[in-house]
Amino acid sequence: MTRSWAGRLVLLLVLPVALVGLWWWTSADSGSVYYPPLTRIVDKLQEDWLFEQVGSDLLPSLGRFTAGYLIAAVTGIALGTLVGLAPRVRRASQPVTEFLRSIPPPLLLPFVLVVVGLGNASKIVLIVLGSVWPVLLNTIDGVHGVDSQTLDMARSFGIGRRTQITRVILPAASPKIAVGMRTALSVALILMVISEMQASTNGLGFKVLSAQRSFDTAGTYAGVIVIGAVGLVVNLGFLAAEGWIMRWHRGARGLLDEAPRAPGPGRGLWSRARAAAAPPVADERPMAGTTGAVE
């Protein structure tokens, strides 16, 4: 087990370490303003982001990102569930949905600034308007694609509509919902940076734009590295949470070696359904006084 994890860790680090080494080697003697030495960029990282700009720029950006993403996720799942459960609503709303999702979210920034105003609210609204679509569309697709036999089975056991949604429909659609939420992470991060480049006084985007306008190339590279590191940490955190929450899904597909736990209250639907649908097994043992062979 230790060797397996060590091999995976080495495999994950080979390419990043090689790219950093190549960057350091090619930029060591660089005199270009647009391609500063990596050592200068590292010094700028330590000077600006450890930890001078953490409270004034990094934390506000993370707060806007978190608020906008959570609002988009909750809104997308709620509306997607309602639309996915109503075929007529889904067909009627499809033209409007396709039209709105086709608008590039950065183009909405002037409109949002005019309607919502300056401040954190406009930035959060822009993040929500852009990142809600992957969650919404994947939720609609996942809810609409739930097997009809599964719903019939739930109704045959007398399960109410609300319990069907929370215990049957949403769990069955959760793999697609998770895909939409992971896609929305990158969209929210991009819109966080874009929103902070206009009418802002702090944030990662504001810091990168300020460094670019003052011809601080090393500071620009440092800001981009911080944004990439934030995206990497957020993505790894999401994958860890998804792996824990969706553990049942991998177990249902036979991807776990552990024996399944005994079903708790409200979790025995599938076992009862399989038991009810399974045909009776005939007792093939020979009766007393017989040999079991047919002469």
What's the layout of helices and strands?
Layout: H1 2-27, H2 38-49, H3 54-85, H4 87-101, H5 109-116, H6 120-144, H7 148-156, H8 161-195, H9 204-213, H10 217-245, H11 247-252, H12 269-277
Helix pairs in contact: 2-10, 3-6, 3-8, 5-6, 6-8, 8-10, 9-10
Briefly note the structural class of the backbone: mainly alpha
Question: Can you tell me the residue ranges where pLDDT is under 50 for at least 5 consecutive residues?
Answer: 256-260, 262-295
Give the CATH architecture.
Orthogonal Bundle
Q: Would you count the extended β strands for me?
A: 0
- Helical region count? 12
| Shape designation | globular
The share of residues in helices is over 70%
What is the string of helix and strand elements?
A: HHHHHHHHHHHH
**Largest sheet at a glance?**
none
Report the portion of residues in β strands.
Answer: under 5%
CATH topology: MetI-like fold
| Overall structural domain count | 1
Q: What is the average of the pLDDT values?
A: 81
Description:
With 295 residues, the protein is mainly α. The protein has one domain: MetI-like fold, CATH 1.10.3720. The protein is built from twelve helices and no strands. It has helices at 2-27, 38-49, 54-85, 87-101, 109-116, 120-144, 148-156, 161-195, 204-213, 217-245, 247-252, 269-277. The longest helix is centred in the middle third of the chain and has 35 residues, at 161-195.
Which key terms come to mind for this protein?
globular; 12 helices; mainly alpha; 295 residues; disordered C terminus; 0% strand; MetI-like fold
